[in-house]
Amino acid sequence: MDQFDVAIIGAGVCGANIARKLSQYELDVALLEKEVDVSLGTSKANSGIVHGGFHDHIRTLKARLELRGALMFDRLHEELDFPFERCGILVAALHEDEMKAIEQLYLQGVENGVIGIEMCSRERMLELEPTLNPDVVGGLYAPSGGILEPYRFVFSLVESARNNGVHLKTEFEVESATREADFWRIRAKSGQEIRARYVVNSAGLLADSISAAFGAERFTIVPRKGEYYLLDRSAKAKPSRVIFPVPTEVSKGILVIPTVEGTVLIGPTASPAQNKEDFATTREQLEHVLHTARMMVPSISENDVITSFAGLRAVYGSDFYIALSEKAQAFVQVAGIQSPGLTASPAIGEYVKDLLKKAGLRLVEKSTWDPYVHKVPRARDADPFALDALVAQDPAYGDIVCRCERVSEAEIVAAIRAGHTTLDGIKYYTRAQMGRCQGGFCTYKIIRILMRETGMSFDQITKRGGGSFILKGSL
Amino acid sequence: MKELSFDAVVIGGGAAGMAAALELDTRGHSVLIVEREATLGGILMQCIHNGFGLIEFNEELTGPEFAQRFEEDIRNRNIQTSLRTTVLDIREEGGLKAIYCVSPSQGMMRIEARAIVLAMGCRERTRGNIRIPGTRPAGIYTAGLAQRLINIEGFIPGKDVVIIGSGDIGLIMARRMSWSGCKVHAVIEILPYPSGLTRNIVQCLDDFGIPLYLSHLVTNIYGKDRVEGIEVTPIESGALMHEKAFRIACDTVLLSVGLVPENELSRNAGIELQPATNGPWVDSTLMTTMPGVFACGNVLHVHDLVDYVVEEARRAGANAAAWISGYRPERELRVKAGPNIRYVMPMRINLERENRFYMRSLIVKNDARLEVRLDGAVVRSRRLAHVQPSEMLSLMLVPEELSAAGRDSTVEIALL
What we know:
The complex is a heterodimer.
Chain A: E1 2-9, H1 13-22, E2 29-32, E3 49-50, H2 61-80, E4 84-85, E5 89-93, H3 99-112, E6 118-121, H4 122-128, E7 138-142, E8 146-148, H5 150-163, E9 167-169, E10 174-180, E11 183-188, E12 193-201, H6 207-213, E13 222-231, E14 242-245, E15 255-258, E16 264-267, E17 271-272, H7 283-296, E18 305-315, E19 321-324, E20 331-335, H8 341-358, H9 384-393, E21 400-402, E22 407-408, H10 409-417, H11 423-430, H12 443-454, E23 473-474
Parallel strand pairs in A: 1-2, 1-12, 2-9, 5-14, 12-20
Antiparallel strand pairs in A: 3-8, 4-8, 5-7, 6-7, 10-11, 11-12, 13-16, 13-17, 13-18, 15-16, 19-20, 21-22
Chain B: E1 2-11, H1 15-26, E2 31-34, E3 50-52, E4 61-62, H2 63-76, E5 80-82, E6 86-93, E7 96-103, E8 107-118, E9 122-124, H3 127-130, E10 140-142, H4 143-153, E11 155-156, E12 160-164, H5 168-179, E13 183-188, H6 198-205, E14 212-213, E15 216-222, E16 229-236, E17 239-240, E18 246-249, E19 252-255, E20 259-261, H7 264-268, E21 273-274, E22 279-280, E23 293-295, H8 306-324, E24 332-337, E25 341-345, E26 348-350, E27 355-361, E28 365-374, E29 377-387, E30 393-397, E31 410-415
Parallel strand pairs in B: 1-2, 1-8, 2-5, 8-23, 10-19, 12-13, 12-19, 13-14, 24-31
Antiparallel strand pairs in B: 3-4, 6-7, 7-8, 9-20, 15-16, 16-17, 16-18, 21-22, 24-26, 25-27, 27-30, 28-29, 28-31
């Protein structure tokens, strides 16, 4: 049976950050994921924002981790090659009575120590963001806020962790655990077993059932749904900064987000989900997204919609729940990580590392730790001369498989070799199938490349593992 | 980076591109066809059903047979092609057009040309475009992708099928899936009339007993890993009848909900597009707002028959040749889409020669009348036994009919 110092349950953005952090030390670490690939849960479907540090007060754990995490992204971006940009964040007030809330956010930001935060007049808002509704009365500007591709961030973190010795076990759905002497014996649904001295519960929506399986604290994670529309990169309504409305009690509201890849994302809603697998979008909620987003950016058009999707927030109380279990030994809870979880996640990695140290884990730095991942050049980013050079090295760069997002065969192959062997995995790694034709022109090509590279037969190809088979027969 | 030079470059090697290139060659100009796939023929290659070429060849051919006739002509005349080549950018540089493209064997190429013919075709509208809510399982494909998977790759995407939209590709695929041992449970159309050609309704649905639900909307898609079913809601007097909604179990949803000209290249080059067609704005010679760049086929507007595509493409090729030789139309008038006409293509008329127009009706009507008006006065009237939006209308106008035209006159085409 495989034996580890630490087992991390859940390869979302928290688990991935914790795994990469622990990969800096002389430890045997296992990262356990129930899905076929990493980042397929809450970390996949969210707003992809590095927040500005003004939404929550610094007395909360989430604000402290958000502020710390936000500062870590420039270096992570340099090391891990995921798309990231500090485009700045605006909070737009559309009525005079909202300016009171803006002022409170501003003062909270100042108290939190946010650098460069600014209260803006109507004119300043329109100067910063000309696509804004001209009826805007004022707002807030946080220049350090940013945007990133969340799944690419997780992919890179996991790749870096693996390069530094972390064992990723996908399709390992933890079913039960027992404490034996100094170890947790962890059993997967598939019958596989491992042993680990310490366990981190970063299971997202399922953190409550994992906690129960280890005999730790009883709590309930409530799924709260967020629905989004994605707009084409050619949409007229493309702001250059993230636009927030004035927040409400339950959420930060419906945002207009220029994604780091040039499309526009609008959403999310905040409504109760029927269960933890309820990723269905609804007509009413999506209409609400369009309507609300248009109040801030009137030029948003339903004709620019490429696709819609829903994500689930893992809600538990009003703050993050990150702590050593008081009931189960050598067990760390990382639960209730909703917004600003993505922003906070690098700091969560450090925080959990320190909790483990406190619980007795010995941390000896690895001299061979390499923070950098191998950068895969992208045809879309290459100028003509650079692309010519890439094709000379690898002719597959000259085969543009996905015309909408300009993705070459070489990048698809790189995704597969990095372990992304489903259509969705390849999509999130490369962006192929993510553009305006939604895979209409490239799906069959990707299927062929997948079969060639992996030796899979046509009936093994899935959208995202499990029973999501693409093809049902052959002629 | 390789540098090449031609009189004209045709972007896209489907029916339109091949027909345009042949015309340029006939007129003595050097021409290169740039095609992203490994073969010429474009989407025709996956259309293995017959019905192509009734006007062009007075025969019923399959898509590949239709393409083959043009392809052989291209080969016999040694017209140059660059296959597996993706055009990335069109620019104006030093009074010429520069086409930047890439292929695995040649790397980056910069091709100079005096004229360009855009013939990139169109793409299918997606689920996102029509905003069907629900889950996002495997098993949802555009009809064209399913057609490619079956007819060329040899894979069957699913067994129990519902087709959303009654566009021609969807209808053809209803028959194709039935022939492949699949059960097509229904075709769902939001409009009160079918979007495809009547002959396809008869041959692809009626002959197979496949129900067509007109005035019905798909309001939900169910399924976690793979599609498990859809919810269909009838529309009565423009309102959704939620209490009459019903479910159809299926493992596959095919979408045939319209086509969109693929103009990202044109848009990035700064070419003006017009909303009625999603294609470039063109003058009477099919020239776009970028001088020397012409457009034809489905990238200009979505056609119903390939025969019309090649007719239009020949005109674009001939006009591009004339432009290279210095011809410029002197007297042009604006042509307006009048009542019940969605658009008229092209949007300008040349008063010096005959003009072929294609247009789309906004209405379904028997015993209709097509009117051409010059400044409000009817100069031509034609009876049409039946019109519907899915069937393109064609009209030829000669300068004599417009002899009364002044400098600021407007021609309007109306359907009554």
